[in-house]
Design brief:
The protein has 260 residues and is an all-alpha fold. The chain is 72% helix and 0% strand. The chain is flat and about 70 Å long. It has two domains: 14-85 and 216-253, no CATH class; 89-202, no CATH class. The two termini are 42 Å apart. Helix 4 runs parallel beside helix 6, helix 5 runs parallel beside helix 7 and helix 7 (136-148) packs antiparallel against helix 9.
């Protein structure tokens, strides 16, 4: 991910920087806590729709659920992006180096969840892991889990369907990543990997993770990731919530349960 970081001459002093962070976190908590009551006032008192009316129920569901999901997405993406600034691909492959299949697949899948590298990093990650001796099956477990079980999908599912469905998604995603990586590792597919990948380990040394990145840069990365991801998916979020609101307001009770 590319982002324009602040110039050295435009740095914000630490006290002001952390003041912004505290104020932003406070605003997020207040917004999330007052979300339901605020939209009750807007939809039912200000606009004049009735809570018992299907239109009023659908409109209230749409605006309150949209606010909840966007707040969750923005908050979690920001936190994960800042945490991710401490972990590089080089650091990750150091953690996986020397792991054997089996437990290695489990460790790789779990690590893939908490270090969700974007798809543009997949080729670099693959070459980096394999070239430093990480087994191919373990590498594939990481690469399957990393994009599939990510913070955006988990938060969308949690916001729309609740904890149980989100937990099932994470659990089955991990099982797929672990199982697929283990099976592919047993198939001995190394012969299909280009030779230059294995030769890469002879060139240079591993790069140490950047532990000296200023907090201002880490927070800038978090803001940029929120803008990028939410900017790409907000229309899909609105369409999905609108469909769910229509179902919530107009579909007869028990309709989908009877079909299922």
């Amino acid at each position: 991910m590319s982002v324009s970081l602040p110039d050295q001459g435009t740095r914000v002093n630490p006290e002001r920087l952390w003041g912004f962070v505290v104020a932003g976190a406070f605003a997020w908590v207040v917004g999330y806590s007052l979300n339901g009551g605020f939209w009750d006032w807007v939809v039912y008192d200000l606009v004049g729709l009735e809570p018992e009316d299907r239109l009023g129920e659908a409109v209230h569901f749409f605006v309150s659920d949209t606010t909840t999901i966007l707040l969750l997405l923005g908050g979690i993406i920001f936190i994960v992006a800042v945490m991710r600034s401490f972990v590089t691909i080089e650091c990750t492959r150091r953690l996986l180096g020397g792991r054997r299949e089996g437990l290695g697949n489990v460790a790789a899948a779990g690590l893939g969840v908490v270090t969700p590298f974007c798809s543009c990093s997949a080729v670099r990650a693959f070459i980096g892991f394999v070239s430093t001796g990480v087994p191919l099956g373990v590498t594939l477990s990481f690469l399957i889990a990393s994009p599939m079980v990510n913070e955006v999908a988990v938060n969308l599912i949690f916001g729309m369907f609740g904890f149980k469905v989100a937990a099932m998604y994470v659990t089955f995603g991990l099982l797929v990543a672990i199982g697929a990586g283990f099976i592919l590792g047993r198939m001995r597919l190394e012969r299909w990997v280009e030779p230059f990948v294995f030769e890469m380990k002879l060139r240079g040394e591993l790069i140490e993770p950047s532990i000296d990145m200023p907090w201002e840069d880490r927070l800038a990365l978090g803001r940029q990731e929120v803008r990028t991801i939410v900017g790409k998916i907000w229309t899909y979020v609105l369409v999905g919530i609108a469909i769910r609101a229509a179902i919530h307001g107009w579909a007869p009770e028990g309709f989908f349960a009877s079909i299922a």
